[in-house]
Amino acid sequence: MTAMQENEPTMPGGPAAVAEPDREIDITGDLCPMTFVRTRLALDRMRPGQILRVRLRGAEPLRNVPRTAAEQGHRVLSLETGADGMTVLYLQRGA
After folding, report:
1. What pLDDT is recorded for position 17?
2. How many domains, in total, are found in the chain?
3. Angle at CA 91, nearest 5°, toward 90 and 95?
4. Per-residue confidence (pLDDT) for residue 19, from 0 to 100
5. Which of 9, 22, 55, 94 has the fewest CB atoms lying closer than 10 Å?
6. Beta pairing class for 51-57 and 86-92
7. For the domain that residue 39 is a member of, what is the CATH number?
8. Per-residue pLDDT tens over the stretch 15-41
């Protein structure tokens, strides 16, 4: 990830700047490729600049969802995995 701009707010306990999400999805029960399909559908329904909070679990979605979102022009704002294996990903919808 890139260094954060100094004027961006930071998410409590998170490594990156994140505003309040405009939408949230939980893909912890989904398997690839549905993990990114559901994420992409959510992003497609949002306006550029809006923020999506994604809850996911497992190595494959952790590896693929942020990478694929970035490849499609969206910005990964924050990615944090807790001790329970649950990952929270914040994405900003691209143009």
Report:
1. 54
2. 1
3. 160
4. 79
5. 9
6. antiparallel
7. 3.30.110.40
8. 445 779 999 999 999 998 999 999 999
Displacement of CA 40 from its chain's centroid (Å): 11
Give the range of the structural domain holding residue 86, as residue numbers without chain letter: 23-92
Burial 54-89, CB ≥16 within 10 A → b, else e: bebbbeebbebbbebbeeeebbbbbbeeeeeeebbb
Q: What is the amino acid identity at position 57?
A: R
Would residue 79 count as lying in a domain?
yes
Query: Active site residue: 4, 32, 46, 76, which one?
Result: 32
Model confidence, pTM: 0.80
Does residue 40 form part of some domain? yes
The rounded distance, in Å, linking the Cα atoms of 71 and 52 is: 16
Asked, for residue 8, whether it belongs to a domain, the answer is: no
